[in-house]
Amino acid sequence: MVALLPVYVVWNPDRTRKGEIDMEQVREREQSTGVVQWIAANLARLLISLIVPVVTFVVMWQGFVFLRGGAAPKPVVATVAIIWGVGGVAALFVLSNWLVEQLPLKWTAALRPFVFVGPAMVILTWYLVLPTLRTFYFSFFNAQSTKFVGLENYIFALTDSAMLESFRNNLIWLVVGTGLSVVFGLLIAILADRSRFEVIAKSLIFLPMAISFVGAGVIWRFIYFYKPVGAEQIGLLNAFVVSLGGQPQAWLTLRPWNTLFLVAIMIWLNTGYAMVLLSAALKGVPAELLEAGRIDGANEAQIFFGIIIPYIQGTIVTVATTILIGCLKIFDIVFVMTNGNYGTEVMASQFYKQMFKFQNFGRGGAVAIILLIAVIPVMIYNLRQFREREAF
Amino acid sequence: MGRKTSLSGILVNGALLLIVLIWTVPTLGLLVSSFRGQEAVRDTGWWTAKPAELTLSNYDQVLGGKEYADPTLPGGVAKGENMSNAFLNSLTVTVPSTVIPILIAAFAAYGFAWMKFPGRKVLFVIVVALLVVPLQIALIPILRDYMQLNLTGTFLAIWLAHTGFGLPLATYLLFNYISSLPRDILESAFIDGASHFTIFLRLILPLSVPALASFAIFQFLWVWNDLLVALVFIGSRPEVAVLTQRLQDMTGSRGQDWHLLTAGAFVTMAVPLLVFFALQRYFVRGLLAGSVKG
Hints:
By secondary structure, chain A is mainly α. Chain A has helices at 23-31, 35-69, 74-101, 105-138, 152-159, 161-193, 198-206, 213-223, 236-243, 258-283, 287-295, 300-311, 313-328, 332-337, 347-357, 361-388. Chain A has 16 helices and no strands. Chain B folds into 2 domains: 6-79, no CATH class; 83-289, MetI-like (MetI-like fold, Orthogonal Bundle). Chain B has 14 helices and 2 strands, in the order αααββααααααααααα. Chain B has a two-stranded antiparallel sheet with strand order 1-2. Chains A and B meet through helix 2, helix 3, helix 4, helix 6 and helix 7 of A and helix 1, helix 2, helix 4, helix 5 and helix 6 of B.
């Protein structure tokens, strides 16, 4: 990208920029009337305009080669990589802005917005817009994308038994995961609001949000850990069951309940998020409204369902939608805990298997497109929300 | 609320305490186990641990490599893969993957908020639409590009991928913030003769620090905790593997070595927990600001 920009460089000595007067240029004009000097001066400018990007590019490329070689000690590579990556992007902006400012004033004004939004749009196009179209395209082809197969991959995706199992499981994730996260989040928000220990309680509930799915996987594998009858249980859940006089269970292979044990991890991770948003919304319910309800003789339950819930409805929808999308795309928990075995397959783990284990790009692509179709209602909702705001 | 009876106060605090316990005990169990010896973790529940038996040897092994008997070597001991390397890789992946999208998104957000150009509205609608696109859809096409460009397994590849996937939310959040800054500031700056670039660097960036920090925490946690993108673009090259990959490896190969797994899990969690506690306020603010997103 950097190397392409000099094409636009046309030096125009007549430009003056709003507010910024180039004193050197003025002096130059006053003193030197000679054509030769004029050409010389601008040639230098033009040369600099070409040299600066080239030098930048060469330096960046050298950095890249150094990093790819990876021969240096790890901390050195890490430091160079960080400086190179962050510095490179900063240099890109400074350089492209500088180049655009060398242009005639009219061009500068027209091109400058694209210095600002251009890089973002290029990356979004490369990383999200085009890939969506490309995935859509090769979902109609065979495993190696060499032969057109029509709707075959979609027929597979909608009829295969593993896929049907993952649809069913995703539905469980969506309903139970989202539902309980919101319910617990709301419950904790209400309890914390009435407690003196609000801050610390909320912090502790919120904490799992910082933990990765993989880390959470280890935590919960430990809790679900199973040892045969008679041995001392080191998994908390089995120890609890045994202490109540029950039989220890291998929870993660226990069909059909094991999906629910995986969903529990998601609830553990997401309740904090729901709690934070709902708690903020609860605090926004006007006290006069609650007071009026009480004066009219409503009991606490009536106040809750008749006043509070309708008032924070918007936030509930937002929270539920966000968690819904997380549950729809859930991958890491299943991958780490059961790898999709024992009837716990979900769409995203099926996608991963098709793409990377079976190398079937057609089928994998079809699953990805189905995932995309599933989020389109949310996309439309977001766009409508956005259009309703006056900001634009 | 002060007029409530003390009974309902006890009920509220009791229920809250119970929930907080349920939410905290899993992490607590992990933390305690990571300080217990191999036999202790294997044979007895962590809740029976006594302070005297706690040790740092698990962390030693996890960070320095597990020691196991190897008679072919002079000392008779070999060292396995360690997590220090993966820790550095995680840092190398995460820092630029956080800063680069913020920089690019801040420029874009300024452009959308304060500049007029053809196509402005259409482009921003695209950004909003991309907010919820599942990143799965992009993995194979991008992987193909990377193979052609010989980029797979490089840091650049994964930075750009995280940048691409984080950019819609970053642009959207920062746009919301930057477009709400008072217009007068900009107008007086223009009158003083500043260019857009100067205004952005000197005025808008410093004013946007709260929004930048909010998004930075999001993106940092997301990248540090990510497994899928790392699996796809870093693959199985152990010298560039990040912490989540190492930990996932360990759950496969050392699924019964709970003393190492728990310590390993805590190593991966240390940095995000630190960031989380230090910057919780910004994080919450960011959550509230980004609440329109899916």
